[in-house]
Amino acid sequence: MTRPLIGITTWRRLIDTDLGTGRPAHTLGAEYAAPVEAAGGAVVLLPPTGGVDEVLDRLDGLVLSGGEDVHPSRYGGAPQDGKTYDSARDGYEIALALGARDRGLPVLAICRGLQVSTVAFGGSLIVDIPATEHHHPVRGADEQLSARHPVVFAEDSRLAALYGTTERIVNTIHHQSVDRSAPGLRPVAWAPDGIVEAVETDGDWPFWAVQWHPEKMIDPDEAAEERPLFAAFVEAARERAAESSAAKKGTR
Known about the structure:
By secondary structure, this protein is an alpha/beta fold. It has seven helices and 13 strands. The protein has helices at about 30-40, 50-60, 85-105, 110-120, 140-145, 160-165, 220-250; strands at about 5-10, 10-15, 20-25, 40-45, 60-65, 105-110, 125, 150-155, 165-170, 175-180, 185-190, 195-200, 205-210.
């Protein structure tokens, strides 16, 4: 069976290489591709570029990955002192989100991806979540990766059906979240402090958006709990690929 083609967005960062320090590179943690491949997808990386329509027309599914903040000016907010933003990435991913919605292309939006989707569709974000018991200021890498908090899902949500439960424990690697929900998206999961942790569409579009990082929950037990999310996403992409193939054969 042909693997569906899944595009995953990248993060432009400066890294040290054999050719010098601070070299610009389009990067993505290997943990993003691994669960998509394990679920049966073929992965291609998507740096900001022209030809959004041409890219989307070739994909069977899209992962909007995590990364730096969307520039607050895109939703009426004020930039934070000391923060760096990537306007090229913002514009590219907003265009991807809008184009994917227009096509009904399966989307898995992770952390920043949820925020990009919210902004793209007309919502807004909390620029910096006030410190609570379950959401602390940005910490060192080890502490961020180990931090966990509970979430509760709406009983009628796709995610509750997918995970087979209305309660989960997830990681905590974000300092922003949904403020005003975008039209067509509804919150379906919350932390105990009220922070929105997932949104879904009102219709049949196969779209999943989570504020936590399922790809970074790599402990075997936690990874097993997240596997249904990646499986459902890749299966939706596989069904789309099959429909596209059948349509092409029908036009010959």
